[in-house]
Amino acid sequence: MQKFYVCWRSLPLCNAPAKLWHVMRLVMILFFAGLVSAYGKSFSQNSPLHVNVKDAPLTELFRQIQQQSNWRIFYKDELLSREKNITLRLQGRRLVEVLDKALGGTGLGYTIIGNQVAIVPKAEQPPRFSQQVREDSLLTIKGRVYDTHEPPEGLPGVSVGVKGSSRGTTSDADGYFSIQAPKNAVLVFSLIGFTPTEFNVLKNNNALSISLAEKVSALDEVVVVGLTEQQRKHIASSVATLNVKSAMSGKPITTISQALQGGVTGLQVSQASGLPGGDAATIKIRGISTINGSSPLVMVDGVPMDMDFIDPLTVESVTVLKDAAAAAIYGARAANGVILVTTKRGVPGRVAVTYDGYYGVQSPTIMPSLVDAPAYMRMYNEGLINSGKPALYSEEDIQNTIAGTDPVKYPNTNWQDLIVNKRAPITSHSVGLSGGNSLARFALNANYQYQEGMTPVTSSKKYNIRANTSISLAKNFQVNMDLLAIKRNILLPNRTLGHNGTRILEDVYRVPPTILAKYPQVEGVDDIYGRYVDIVNPLAYVEKGGKFSNEYAQSSINLQPKWEVIPGLNLRGQFSYRLNSDLKGSLRDNYNFFDYYTGQLLQTWSQQRTYTQGRTTYYYIGANADYTLDVKDHHFFAMAGYSQEEDNNTTTTLNISSIVSTYAKLNYSFKEKYLLEITGRLDGSSKFAQGHKYGFFPSVAAGWNISKEPFMAKLPTISNMKLRASYGQLGNEDIGLYRYQTTISNSSGIEGNYGNPDITWETVNMLDIGLDMGLFQNKLEVVFDYYNKLTNDIILAPPLSYTGGFEDAVPVNAGKVRNEGWELSLNYNGNIGKEVDISFRPGVTYNKNTIVSLLNGPYVTATTIRQEGGTTAGMFGYKTGGLLQQSDFDKDGNPLIPVLPGAQPGDIKYLDLNGDKLIGSEDQTEIGNPVPRLNYFANFRIAYKHFDLEFLLQGTNKADALLAGMLALPMDNSRDGGVPTRFYADNYWTPDRTDAMFPRLNTLPANNKLSSDFWLQDAAYLRIKYVQIGYNTQADFLKRAGIHGLRFYLNAQNPFTFTSLKLTDPESKGDQWTYGIMKAFIAGINVQL
């Protein structure tokens, strides 16, 4: 069989050694021949062969083999010309036996790939299992190979080979195969365009199921785009996907929202709290669109729900719909963007068992140190004197406190050491099982999370069980049934004035170190705690104050039938029901507090047993039809559907809301060059009065795959280039319930909320222009978007006085807000040599938020302002010029400039903006904005052999943080009083330190408490979100033991933050009452069985 070859000598490959070139040509021949054979009939490596060759060349033997079977034998004529004729007669033998006999005395060997045999020089033959393996010791493996589609289909032409051996076969037209292999051998399943997989042979198996996942390019990637899936090359709208494997797999995160911080451009994600059970991040997509609800719609497996209740390890994909064209299919609730989460489903194959677990310790990212008792005593004396009062502590008291000889009478209590837990444990354990066959598939997961807080009693336990099943009732009909059960229990100290977990921390900052935590135990007497004015100290609250518990439970069922009526036409349905219950309780035993010295009863805490229960039910029902048609160069996709849902919330009142919707979508592409999307949705909501319940939200998008044009062939560097543009309208019905109705206050008997039946939908008109590029064979992907988003008819309640006869103003559609910005993301995947893989994913988002119009504006509170030309989060207060100095007063102490009454050197210098020579409310203005315009991130990963290192950087540009309360003005005799930080102690104004950062000490600092830009700090920051190093073991003995994967990792969460902000974490924006986020050091393990 003579073969002819053509080689362009200018190619470097053609200058390779002849032997290497010969092998490569054979591989290419086998590759193309394998493609053809994929559609042929099935064959078996064990088919008996009968050969009879007498003094004939090897070519005669090969002819007889091919005549009796599907084997195809390839060789080079000059290779055989050097061999002698052979004589061989065998009956009922397998191919490998025939070839071993025939080639045993020659210099030739062979390689089998699928049903292709390559005759090669023996030196180039790969090593094989010993031919002395007894036939009766071989194990028989039969089964079927599937793709990962739903429902799965058999894959023909899959090469099934014994690793390190010439044994092999291919799957037939329906994906079935049969092969014999020694015990402990490894079967390799491979097919062009699919990711290979391996299976360890331990025993006979007559029903093995194997799934192969497709390898897809960036353009062929299938993306969840709302109610369906589409290939990215057919999408003209702005759709981003989170790299789930990088962001969540093998990472110690407690919520999905945390993974989005530094994962997708266009998102403003901030995690202001690290409170166990309350550490979810807040998300805004392309800015704050309204002063009403501005959170994105989150859909989990097609149903609205809180994604932070989902175990991150069960997530298959996360897609963010950012522009109007992408989100319009969700109409009424898509004004703030849409996040689509899909969970993992089972695929045909063996039952895979996984375990993921980690354990770590947490500590606050920042915990400012407080002064000790002697320093506090001196500073408090100074504050009293500055307030015109006598000193409280004598020098003798201070010296006795320093000496520490009588800690009961002269205590020096470090409340942070007593209360704050700087090594709070966090742990998580997840077990998963998945597998199935063509008839039924399943994915089960159980997760347990436990997290302690930085204060005693504080903790969160969460249990999560998910069961996703897929059943194929017929070849073209299947049903997905998903069950979910969640239970979460949060414990907090039972401190009064709210249960947000921060009040105990407030006490730590407020109670002076001169207060004893607990007096020495007296026999027969309960514990006696030190008191600060009328406040029992924080240790008493921790030990005797009881607990506040919040028990939350959720159970849900989600059914999704799918019927492929004819090829391309699918009918889908969905029914979901969810039950939530919430039980909050305060538990405390009776306790008496006495004076240590007199025995006088000071206070009694009565027994407390209070509970509040809430219950929410939700149901969703919907159906749609989609049709895909390809006619030559034309691709069509059409979809239409209907849905309705209802939410019933019962606590002390019953709140019901419902929405009904119809929608349609059309996609068209020509030669995959020119793309068009048209979407429309009609929604009806119970939140509006008759005549205004319905809103229609259309959108259109167009795309041009420039890289498909012939002229782009001259630019080989550009692998992919697509230009996108879209415009559309979205709605927002997240405005609260019953705002169109007038309600009666149950406390005053007058109108509590004055309704307006004429209010209607808030609408968002959005323009998006984007460019997607792939460079260097898509090793580098670039995505750029410009957007302009205008929210119209924002529902506002212009401020009115109580004397108007009702408590709240009449809501009206009377505001407009614009968000304009751009996004840029890069994604590079490459390698250095054969063993080093590198990925780098930076992203930048810029957004400018502006109030365009505001009825009867501005709207002002003590610290906020909303006005035309400003932002939706404007900060309100006085402009300042630093601190007043002695030069601002004459020799008699009279001010030379406008000041507040009683102002002295060292107080804040407020500016007289209106020029009336007075400092008053007319001088207040917008002073800052806590929302940064620029958000950025960069993810870097490098892998070498079994090791990998990854880190994520994330940060923002300038954002204003308003420092207030005890951190700004300690020792205030009002409720905001507290203990100075060491930083404050080194930076407050004195006559000898006039360039100070803080005003003079004063126990009556009324003038300095006003909201002003003096207290603004720059909250820009760069944070290392995590650093992780991992090791993947791939030892053969583990595979023989049934362990298919074993990974260890060490992870540091939030280890370093670079910011000029002092005293608080930058994401808390200076709020002293915020339970700050935590840093953690964690060790984890992943096991696959």
Give the helix proportion (percent range).
Answer: 10-25%
The CATH topology of the largest domain is: Maltoporin, Chain A
Which band does the percent of strand residues land in? 35-45%
Give the CATH class of the largest domain.
Answer: Mainly Beta
Distance from N terminus to C terminus (CA atoms, Å) equals: 47 Å
Radius of gyration: 36 Å
Q: CATH superfamily of the largest domain, please?
A: TonB-dependent receptor, beta-barrel domain
Indicate the CATH architecture of the largest domain.
Answer: Beta Barrel
Total beta-strand segments: 59
For the sheet with most strands, the description reads:
22 strands, antiparallel, barrel
What does this structure look like?
The protein has 14 helices and 59 strands. With 1089 residues, the protein is mainly β. It folds into three domains: 113 residues, Phage tail protein beta-alpha-beta fold (3-Layer(bab) Sandwich), CATH 3.55.50; 77 residues, Sandwich (Immunoglobulin-like), CATH 2.60.40; 584 residues, Beta Barrel (Maltoporin, Chain A), CATH 2.40.170.20. The strands form 15 sheets. The chain has a 22-stranded antiparallel β-barrel. Strands 15-20-21-18-19 form a five-stranded mixed sheet. A hairpin with a 4-residue loop joins strand 13 and strand 14. Helix 8 packs antiparallel against helix 9. It is globular and about 130 Å long.
